[in-house]
Design goal:
By secondary structure, the protein is α/β, with parallel strands linked by helices. Helices cover 28% and strands 18% of the residues. It has a single domain, classed as Rossmann fold (3-Layer(aba) Sandwich), CATH 3.40.50.
């Protein structure tokens, strides 16, 4: 527990303002970076600052059984060959070539696979994997001009059409992860794959599911940023994709004003309609109040506007189902931008910008129950 606490301190210091370089374990199980592109060339081509810490093979997390970092090369039309990375958590109880479901979890803008695992979700996906026999993957976007100073492998997903295209194929990157798991003998092939993303990662999860509805069994987008004119999904009734989940807050300080009303609500309805679960299909939402067991912000001395706007949040589940297809929304009245969890540890300088997380539910438990139960 002490080791995990120390890791959270490192992540918070690195991700939100510190320029100190983390001194963390290095994985020796991977080959060195391709000599075809040196680090400086990669960063310059991607538009990242020269001091960005781009070391894909390095595992910036306390070692634990089942957790490992893996890399492969990907061609980028503008930059040549770059090294991509992902973390995998495979419970030691799972046999090789498992048929277990695979959860692919994507971080938000500027964060990393390790930050998503340890800071945003507090290891809850790994614990669910142990309890339910799941494989959990944490993807990692490539460096960008919006990196967090000092955070190892800080990155962003190219989830929207780019004004100046970089040639980065993040949808193809996600395809490669599934192929790599199969080639390494982790999965048997044909496993149900589920995409889960937060913020910029939520936008990426929706894009990949929209473009590859035969590859994924479900997608969940938490507080997603999807641009201002997101592409609607295709007709999905006869595809493998059968479960879609949107999670958002009407008072999210991490998104543009009125973004939830103007973008996320109509986009969610478009996904429901694509599943054959729209109001035009004769279906209405079945509403269930979420537990309201925590008064967020109680005792919080920070009096920033984002904190005031996200105190004492509450929410509800909105469900539509028909046969094996399901559309769910978790809707909060005033939660902040970060992943909902019952064990937050956000410093004041984060709360000032992103507000208070909802602490009534555990996001990982909610999404796993929706996908798997």
């Amino acid at each position: 527990m002490r080791q995990r606490s120390m890791w959270l301190i490192v992540i918070l210091a690195a991700a939100f303002g510190s320029c100190s370089r983390p001194s963390l374990p290095v994985s020796a199980a991977n080959a060195p970076l391709s000599s075809r592109l040196d680090r400086a060339h990669v960063l310059a081509c991607l538009g990242a600052p020269p001091d960005a810490i781009y070391e894909p093979e390095r595992l910036a997390a306390p070692p634990e059984p089942g957790l490992s970092v893996h890399t492969f090369d990907q061609e980028v039309s503008r930059c040549g060959t770059v090294r991509r990375r992902y973390l995998s958590y495979v419970p030691t109880s799972l046999a090789a070539r498992s048929t277990a479901p695979v959860l692919i979890v994507l971080h938000g803008q500027g964060a990393s696979a390790e930050a998503m695992m340890s800071f945003q979700t507090h290891g809850t996906f790994n614990r669910l994997a142990d309890a339910k026999g799941l494989v959990v993957i944490y993807g990692n976007g490539l460096p960008t001009s919006l990196n967090f100073a000092g955070l190892l492998n800080s990155g962003r997903w190219r989830s929207e059409p780019e004004v100046n295209p970089s040639g980065i194929d993040d949808v193809g990157y996600l395809d490669r992860i599934a192929g790599d798991l199969l080639a390494r003998g982790v999965i048997a092939g044909g496993n149900d794959l589920y995409l889960i993303g937060q913020s910029n990662g939520g936008g990426m999860a929706l894009r990949a599911a929209r473009e590859r509805p035969e590859a994924y069994a479900g997608v969940a987008a938490f507080m997603p940023f999807v641009g201002f004119s997101p592409s609607p999904p295709p007709h999905l009734e006869h595809t493998r994709l059968r479960r879609v989940m949107f999670v958002y807050s009407y008072a999210d300080p991490g998104l543009p004003p009125s973004y939830t009303d103007n973008v996320l609500v109509p986009l969610g309805q478009a996904w429901a309609g694509a599943l054959g679960l729209g109001t035009s299909d004769g279906l209405d939402d079945v509403a269930t109040a979420l537990p309201n067991v925590v008064t967020e912000g109680q005792g919080q001395e920070t009096d920033a506007a984002a904190v005031r706007a996200t105190r004492a949040s509450s929410g509800q589940r909105l469900d539509r189902r028909r046969e094996d297809r399901a559309f769910r929304q978790l809707v909060f009245d005033r939660a902040g931008h970060f992943w909902p969890t019952r064990q937050p540890a956000d410093p004041d300088r984060v709360l000032v910008k992103f507000g208070l997380r909802n602490q009534d539910v555990e996001g990982a438990t909610e999404v796993a129950a929706f996908f798997l139960d």
